[in-house]
Request: fold
Amino acid sequence: MRGYGQYCPIALAAEIFAERWTPIIIRNLYLGCGHFNEILDGAPGLPRSVLSQRLRSLHHAGVIERHRAGRSTAYALSPSGAELAQVCLELGAWGARWRTVRPEDQDPYLALWMLSRMIAPETLPRPRIVVLFHITGRPLPNRFWLVLSATGNEVCAQAPGFAEDGQVSTDTAGLIRWYAGETRLAVAQRAGAMSVTAPAWLVRQLAGWGRLNPYAVDSSVGEP
Reply:
């Protein structure tokens, strides 16, 4: 990326941070993605070649650390990158306050992927939890499985081969509003925006997961 040629801290920082896809890559590293394909999974539309180039640039700039183990390469934020991740979080707070997601940009897979990264495996009441999300009013793929376990969380677009603990049916807008913390599960159920078929313990988990988004602005304060 061509620099601004200015001795200005904002310009110097923007030379690193303002390059396309860089904030998304830093966000994914902050969320715990440590390998190439993990970072890519959370960045739909990011070409593999671009990710490779950005990782090289960020490593050269001292923003990320790279560790090799045999043929495997792991990535992590450096102390400098950890500070830059806080800039990402502040940028997200601004975006949540002043920007609105267009309907055509709403992606149920990405929303569930982000959610899976916010759920700490050590908080799970069972070794593995599998929830099927059926996204209505959407062309295929419209079924996604949220698979949570002590060894890591993932989102599958095909049946993972494990028994389902429960099912959620909603449209994309309903899923986004719940994931973003704009509406609580009980409110969405009463309004008919979400239908849940699950035991009571899983309903409680779902209700809690809908409050994990750090930018949540819950309009249902006081609701159960």
In short: The beta strands are 64-69, 72-77, 128-136, 143-149, 154-156, 166-171, 194-197.
